[in-house]
Every structure is written in C-alpha cells, then in structure tokens.
Amino acid sequence: MNVDTEEIIHFLASHPPFALLSREQLAAIAARLDIVQTRRGHEILAPGGKTNVLHLIRSGAVDVHGPGGKLLLRLGEGEIFGAEALLRGGKVRNRVTAIEKTLLYLLPQQEFHRLCQEEDAFAEFIVPLGAERLRSALQRQDPPDLTLALNLGASLVRDLPIQPMVLALPNLTIREAAQWMQDRTVPALLISDGERLLGLVTDRDLTTRVVATAMDPSQPVAQVMTPDPVTIGIDDQASDAMLLMVEKNIKHLPVLDGERPAGLLTSQDLTVRQLGSTPVYLISTIARMERLEDLRAVAREVPNLLVTMTAANATALSMGKAMAFMTDAFTKRLIRMAEERLGAPPVPYVWLAGGSQGRQEQMVGGDQDNCLILDNGYDPQYHGLYFEALTRFVCDSLDLCGYDHCPGNMMASNPTWRTTLSEWQQNFTQWISQPDPKALMLVSVFFDLRPIHGEMTLADELRTYILDKARGATVFHAHMSVNALSRTPPLGFFRDFVLRQGGKYADTLDLKLTGVIPVVDLARVYALESGVEAVNTHERLAAAGQQGIITESSARDLRDALEFIAFTRCRHQARAIKASRIPNNHLPPTELSEFERRHLKDAFRVVQVMQRSLASRHHIDRM
After folding, report:
1. Same domain, residue pair 212 and 244
2. Quick check: is 14 in a domain?
3. CATH number, residue 27
4. CA 324 from chain center: how many Å?
5. 35 belongs to a structural domain
6. Contact present, 338 and 393 (Cβ < 8 Å)
7. What is the DSSP letter of 378?
8. Is the alpha carbon torsion for 177, 181, 184, 187 positive or negative?
9. Rounded CA gap, 161 and 269, in Å?
C-alpha cells in the first residue's frame, strides 16, 4: 500500500460516515475513489442536473444554495454532499459552488449504493433507518377525540371564537375610539391603514394611558395604541395562539390573514369556551390567588392538563411548553407574595429556571432547578437576610405545590446558587476552562437557564458572557461531547430494547434518562459549538441545522425522534394520572402497541446515529 493510499484511509477514518467502517472496508473504498480539484467559483452541481458520485471534501469549502438562491449550507473539510441526489436516482436539486480552491474525493454511485445496502452504520448516517417512517407516523397519529380536543392540537385559529374585526384609522381621536368601542361593545380596536395592522388599543389602554394621565381625548388614538402588537395567523395552530397568550401574558391577540387584520382573539373567549384544565384558565386562576393553600388546590389540577392535552393529540412540544408555563405562573405568583411580605427588594435580581422548566420541556413529577442572579451591588451583610427569606419561601412553597425540592439542592434557596452577576461569570469561566466531571454537570444544568421574574438584563448579560466564553473552547466542547455520549438510547446490538435491570422499575424503559435526555444533551453541545442563544431543544436543533453544525435533514430527524419519544412519555404519564397512579418515566414495553414499538425503535436509531456522528467528529472512542 503506497503512502498516498494510506493517507486517504487515515482521512476517511477521521470523518463520518466512513469513520463508522472497518479499516479493510476503507482500504477498498480508497482504491475506488477518484480525485479532482476545482477552482474558486466553479459550479460543481447544478439544479436539474445529474450526478453519479458522492462528493467528499478533502480540502477547501463549498456553498450549497437551494431554490431561489437561498444559502442552505457551507461545507468544509471532511463533509459530504450529493447523497440525497444519489438516493433520488442522481437528480440534483441544489446548486453547489466552490468558494475556494477545493480538492474532492469522488465515490462512484455503485459503491455508494453497495455501502448503503450492506453497511447499516453507513446507511443510518446517510438516511437514518426509520427516519421517514417516523415522520410518517407523526403525521398519521390517531385523530383526536374532538369532544376532548378543546381547540388544542386539533384545530386552527380560524376555528376559535374570533371577535369580529373592528378597524380604525390612526388619525381617529381618542374620544371617537372610546365611543366606537362602547357602541360596538368590543374590548379593543385594531388600528390599521387599510392594509396593514399598525397597532392595538384596548379599554385598559384608555384607562391607564388616557384617564390616569389626564390626556387630551382629542389627540389621535395612535398616540396611546400599542404599536406592532404580537399577532397570530388565521391558519396557525390554535394551541400556538393559546400558548402565545400565556407566554406573553396578553389578553388580546390580533389575528391576521396574510398581512391583513382578520379579527381579535381574547383570553376571556378562550377561558369561557374551554373551562377546565387548560393553560389560560389555570394561569388566570393562579394569578388571582392570595393564599398558599389556594395555590396548592390549583396545583392539584395541573396533572389533568397533561391528560387533556394528550387526549387532544397536542404535540409533546406544546405540552412541554404548557406545563412549563404553569410552573412559571406558580413561581411568579409566589415571588410576588414573598415581595408583598418582605417589601421591595433592596437590589435588583432575576429568578431563573433551569432543567426541563428552563427548556420549556416539563412534564409531571419533576423537581425544581432554579437560581438567582443578584446585582453586583449586593452586600450579604445588608441584603442577605432578605434574599434568604424570599428564596426559602418560594422554594418551600413550590415543594408544597408538588414541585419537589431538588435532591442535589440546586435551588435559589442554596446560597451557592444565589449570587452576584460577577460571581456567576467567574463560575462559568472556571467550569469552561477546567471541565472536570462536576463542572460538566453544572454547565449541563445552568446552560439551560431561562429568566422568569425580575431584572432581565442580568440574565441577558450572563448568557452573552457564557456564549462568548464557550465559543471556540474546543477542549471544553470535546469534554461536553463525552458527557453527552454517556447516556445512550436503550437499543441492543440486535435492535431490541435494553430494559432496566433490577429494582423498583425492573424491565422498563426510562423514557427520560435514556430517551429524551440523549437528544437534549446533543442539542446542548450543538448550541455551545455554534453560540446559539436558544434554550428549548427543538429550537437548538433547528438552529444547528440552519447554521450547518449538522445537516438540516439530521436536525429534522432528531426533532422528529424527540417528538415521538416525548409524546410516548406523555401518553404513559397521562394513563397513570387517569388511573390515579403516580406518574413516572418508566414504561413497560408491554404497554406499547406494535405501531408504537416499531416507531420508538426508529426514534432511538436516529439518536444512535447522531451520537456516533458526534463521537466521530470529536474522535471519541465510546460508541
């Protein structure tokens, strides 16, 4: 074997999907490769053309442009392109252009198809086995029982009780606007120039911005409207409208048909229409509670929200956000109750949620993960007792409402996690520069922080600082990757489930620890590598695909896998709640239908492939 061939084998062994093959296979592939060099600006593949080779970039870089010239990917050394075209019989859809002098290895299509047919690891990297079946399964889930749907997963915004559209021009006077609202018995006016929505004015705006300030009612209503309000499309999911109103804490949501105003959706309409266990109803109830005992009574209704949404066939993504919004609502109300008892805080602070609440992926039965960032003017001698009392009241009260104390004491009531912005920055500097096992565990928790209440700029400053420190920290990325690969999907060598051995949950699948968490860990690594600010796992995966950290198809496959695993977990917990059992994450495979069993394996296989890819990229010999 000559030196050139040995060098090619070494290069192939360092880059997926070839890194997943044996040395003997790589030697055979190296003998079949063609080598070409292209100049800068050369069009390698053109839409509508044909290709009969898989392209592997040895050096240089290429841009991949989709229809309309949109830049889809920028690929560099060790990355492949043309696989999807070969799987379509060679038909090219995207334009691929060299952006610098580029050396390519070309694998003939016959060899490509042979590897896909004979080598599972290679095929799963190119087209994860089951990914298309899984996508089809998500689209073909049993239709919801519309009597239980409550306009969640089953309906569009146009199916909801939208208020008739009442439009006004921006030069209408405040007095005229008030008269219009009274005559038409509407709670708000949409301010429009005839084509576009310019703003929104509500009866509350007239009270707080006009009456309370003694403003001249002959002034144009545009001076008191809310410009560019949050909106929803008429063909968007109804569940998105509900969650948007809860998340933004708004009571009036303009509905658009394209760019044209189509009406108004109000929280009161949703509450009246959907009495019972819905986010809008429960959160509005929580906001009115004055006593801890009353909050505990409302908290007992929260598990029924999961039952209702599961019956409505809402997505696991929507359910996770809804459950997190519930925890946010309890937290905010308890913080305000504490401030009412203790007085105004002596220095600015922000309360943050971590873990599944922070990522907005919460289910039933989780424990607390939270912390406090204090302004750098904090002095423990003068301010310590106030924040000790506030955090202890909130954390203990959350525990009484069903959100258990964190077993590892990673809560704001622990002074270690209740400290100043500068001290938080020092912590992250140390964790990133010295990534020992404890540091990696802490970063995994605290990189998922989301601000809940208080001075939001403190949270923004810390996140910017963390992303700047993590960007380019290759040693830290490698350690985080090893940490992310420590939990693998429960599939054995022969593609059967690997069940828990011994103990209370023997012979079950842990849908959280070995199902959801491996995807969460992968997405966190991608976010650290790319500097993505998103905390939600679906949003991190989408951003990773858009930025080229992974391919867009891989990002889509992982999101589909996460959705199916998480929905299976939701359904398992909902069955337990309906049967008056304590919900958990441990699923006996006997509960699975053949449909669920097959597609759950598909989802686990997708995760396995992406873990192998990450291991290969960081040269981790663990998979």
Report:
1. yes
2. yes
3. 2.60.120.10
4. 12
5. yes
6. yes
7. -
8. positive
9. 7
| pLDDT higher than 70, residue 459 | yes
SS (H, E, C) 238-284: HHHHHHHHHHHCCCEEEEEECCEEEEEEEHHHHHHHCCCCCHHHHHH
CB-CB neighbours of 450 under 10 Å: 18
Question: Distance between CA 533 and CA 535 in Å, rounded?
Answer: 6
| pLDDT value of residue 154 | 44
Cα–Cα distance measured from residue 533 to residue 447, given in angstroms and rounded to the nearest whole number = 10
pLDDT in tens, 243-281: 677 667 788 899 998 888 888 888 766 654 443 456 766
φ, ψ at 202 (rounded to 5°): -115, 170
Count other Cβ atoms within 10 Å, centred on residue 111. Answer: 15
Q: Are residues 84 and 179 in the same domain?
A: no
CA gap 231, 45 in Å, rounded: 41
Looking only at the bridges linking them, the beta strands covering 232-233 and 252-257 are parallel
- For the chain, how many structural domains are there in total? 3
Residues 320, 461 within the same domain: yes
Strands 450-454 and 226-227: unpaired
Asked whether residue 121 falls in the same domain as residue 169, the answer is no
Average pLDDT over every residue of 207-217: 83
**b/e 9-23 (16+ beta carbons within 10 angstroms → b):** bebbbebbbbbbbee
Specify the CATH number for the domain of residue 239: 3.10.580.10
Q: Which two tokens stand for residue 519?
A: 């995807």
Task: Please tell me what DSSP assigns to residue 211.
Answer: I
Query: HSE-up of 316 (CA within 13 Å, CB side)?
Result: 27
User: What integer pLDDT is reported at residue 276 of this predicted model?
Assistant: 45
* The token pair that represents 388 in the structure block: 């000790």
Considering 219, 254, 273, which residue would you say is the last residue of a domain? 273
Structure tokens at 418: 């209740």
Tell whether 350 and 433 lie within a shared domain.
Answer: yes
Q: Which residues contact 206 (CB under 8 A, 6 or more apart)?
A: 174, 177, 178, 181, 224
| pLDDT tens, residue by residue, 89-105 | 899 988 999 999 999 99
Residues 62 and 160 in one domain: no
- Where on the phi/psi map is residue 211: left (φ > 0), alpha (ψ -120 to 50), or beta? alpha
Domain containing residue 359: 314-472
**294: which 2 tokens?**
């009353």
**Phi then psi for 359, rounded to 5 degrees?**
-80, -5
Q: Give me the phi and psi of 172, to 5 degrees please.
A: -60, 140
Is residue 188 within 8 Å of 201, Cβ to Cβ?
Answer: yes
CB 611 within 8 A of CB 623: yes
- Encoded tokens for 60: 């240089």
537 falls within a domain:
no
Q: Give the separation between CA 204 and CA 220, rounded to whole angstroms.
A: 17
Residue of 334, 404, 408 whose CA lies nearest to 364: 404
- Where residue 495 falls among pLDDT bands split at 50, 70, 90? low
Position 184: which residue type?
A: R
Q: Please measure the distance between the N-terminal and C-terminal CA atoms of the chain and give it in whole angstroms.
A: 29
- Work out the mean pLDDT of the chain and round it to a whole number: 86
Task: Please tell me the distance from the alpha carbon of residue 417 to that of residue 446, in angstroms, as a whole number.
Answer: 10
CA 621 – CA 130 distance, rounded (Å): 25
SS3 assignment, position 449:
coil
